[in-house]
Design brief:
heterodimer, A: mainly beta, Ubiquitin-like (UB roll), five-stranded mixed beta sheet, two-stranded antiparallel ribbon, 8 strands, 6% helix, globular, B: alpha/beta, FAD/NAD(P)-binding domain, five-stranded parallel beta sheet, 36% helix, 22% strand
């Protein structure tokens, strides 16, 4: 699975860093959109049952947490992407 | 003393409008960066689709709500990006951009909305499975489909609406799989017709999908979502008992809506089990007033009634707030709102009966299915705890089961699994679902950063 961009694709490009690799996204993307349009997961379940990519997209399920350098753990679905953001999907012990 | 409106969707907007017209300046808090709520969510700056593309038949309503809110802005204290995470006696605790603030209130109108009701299925935690509402948000707020080949699975009006919106936007809709048999919906035809335009739109979406050859199956039993580290396949059994599968890379699931009523819970508002919508609903009078002084409810957070009635309920609750402050009400406006709310109730009941929550699907889920996706607790673990309780003849309800198994103890606080967990537990204890109760809300209602004590 990857999110498919169907509309609003003529926005300005921005880039961010995902797990150490530069990734292109679009201005106005949420962090969730920017990541999932590129690669189909957001986090690794801490209980060993595999990958997760969020669920509700409205800030309720808390299943889309990623780590942002300098910002700590954030909900990817409600966090706007900003250019140059450095994001990690690895498990970080609290 | 302040009036606090929590939620800037249709209910909160109309509540603010009435209060401002009475010369008051309410504080309006919303977790989102913009007003509109989920249904009339505004797209980010720089997006250019017109309201017709974004909201379809609801474009005029969305525009009206946005226009009213924009006109109200100078007259209200709007606090976007602000989470109301606790409600104490006369105080709502909020956090915005990491900054905490305790906001006292004389009256609050909780317009906290709803979220999708889920039934856990094998494979539902795989990347590529999203809620119906979430799938709609991806399209509306971000211009994205959740995958290249999408199945829609569940029941309720949103199932057909979102499938239609996806197909119209150019997404490949592989199948629409409805757990409700056609006959159940047909039996409600008379009641549904009272919905007039709303009913007609629903029929239109279904006809539109069928006309484009999109596979629609009714009365299905979902079997599994499969894949190694992402969705690859969805399988189901049709009404005749034949198994089917379809290759997809995303599945949107949803079985109706449930109120986001955590703040009402923290306020101490009593809840009742509504057998028609199969939800626990905070108790309120027809004006939205609760038994807790100063606490009023409007919109889907006070029981699912849909966006149109949310507008009426928001305005009605604002009049009730004015009455509580000893201010005169416009009797004709109030009578009109009461009539609208009463008239809408019978259509809503027919709609809920036409798309019932598949309680048996939840109750029958396989032992190895992950029930609580936060804590990764299976249905079997909950059943084992229930059987232990039975053996010891000790009374059991969901909060006790939560303490024993951690079901619903994760960071979503049981929002996602609570309804299904109650069905699993009730079936194991051979009692009706309402008898095992509901998971109580706890502050903070959503995770917040740990703050130094002096900041709180």
């Amino acid at each position: 699975m990857r999110l498919q961009r169907l509309a609003e694709t003529d926005r300005a490009a921005v880039s961010f860093v995902l797990d150490g690799t530069p990734v292109a996204a679009l201005e106005g993307d949420s962090l969730l959109t920017a990541i999932l349009a590129h690669d189909g997961y957001l986090r690794v379940s801490e209980f060993g049952d595999g990958l997760r990519a969020g669920f509700c997209l409205m800030g309720a399920c808390q299943d889309c947490w990623v780590n942002v350098e300098g910002g700590g753990r954030v909900r990817a679905c409600t966090t706007p992407l900003t250019g140059g953001m450095r994001v990690s999907r690895r498990i970080v012990q609290p | 003393m302040s009036i606090l409106i929590i939620g800037a969707g249709p209910a909160g907007t109309r509540a603010a409008e009435v209060l401002v017209s009475a010369g008051l300046r309410p504080i309006v808090i919303d977790e989102a960066p913009e007003n509109g709520g989920r249904i009339y969510q505004r797209q980010p700056a720089g997006f250019r689709r017109d309201p017709r593309t974004l909201y379809g038949f609801e474009a005029a309503k969305a525009r009206a709500i946005h226009d009213v809110f924009d006109q109200l802005r100078p007259s209200i204290d709007f606090r976007p990006r602000t989470l109301a995470w606790n409600l104490r006696q006369g105080v709502i605790d909020t956090i915005c951009d990491g900054k905490a603030s305790a906001v006292p209130f004389a009256q609050t109108i909780l317009c906290t909305g709803a979220m999708d009701r889920a039934v856990p299925l094998p494979g539902w935690t795989l990347p590529g499975v999203f809620t119906l509402g979430g799938s709609q948000i991806a399209l509306k707020a971000q211009g994205c489909a959740i995958g290249a080949k999408v199945a829609f699975l569940g029941t309720g009006p949103l199932l057909y609406l979102v499938a239609y919106q996806y197909a119209r936007a150019g997404a490949q809709v592989t199948a629409v799989l409805d757990t409700t048999p056609f006959a159940v919906k047909a039996a409600q035809a008379f009641g549904l017709m009272r919905g007039g335009a709303t009913f007609a739109k629903g029929l239109y979406y279904i006809a539109w999908l069928r006309a484009r050859g999109i596979r629609i199956a009714e009365g299905v039993t979902p079997m599994a979502i499969e894949g190694s580290d992402r969705v690859e396949l969805v399988s189901w059994r049709d009404a005749r008992g034949t198994n089917h599968e379809a290759a997809v890379d995303a599945v949107a699931i949803g079985f109706g809506l449930k109120p986001e009523a955590q703040l009402a819970d923290l306020a101490g508002v009593p809840f009742d089990f509504d057998p028609v919508q199969h939800n626990w609903v905070p108790r309120k009078d027809p004006s939205g007033r609760t038994s807790v002084g100063g606490v009023f409810l409007a919109g889907d957070g006070g029981g699912i009634r849909g966006a149109d009635l949310a507008e009426a309920a928001g305005a009605r609750a604002a009049w009730a707030v004015l009455a509580a402050r000893g201010l005169a009400a416009d009797a004709r406006a109030v009578a009109r709102l009461d009539a609208t709310l009463a008239a809408g109730a019978s259509f809503r009941a027919a709609l809920e009966r036409a798309f019932p929550f598949p309680a048996k699907l939840a109750a029958d889920m396989a032992d190895e299915t992950i029930l609580c996706r936060c804590e990764v607790i299976t249905a079997g673990e909950l059943r084992a705890a229930a059987n232990e309780a039975l053996a010891m003849l000790s009374p059991s309800e969901v909060n006790r089961a939560k303490a024993l198994t951690r079901v619903g103890m994760g960071r979503c606080q049981g929002r996602v699994c609570g309804a299904a967990a109650a069905e699993v537990l009730a079936a194991a204890l051979s009692c009706p679902a309402e008898q095992v109760g509901r998971l109580r809300g706890q502050p903070p209602v959503k995770p917040i950063p740990i703050l130094p004590a002096e900041a709180a």
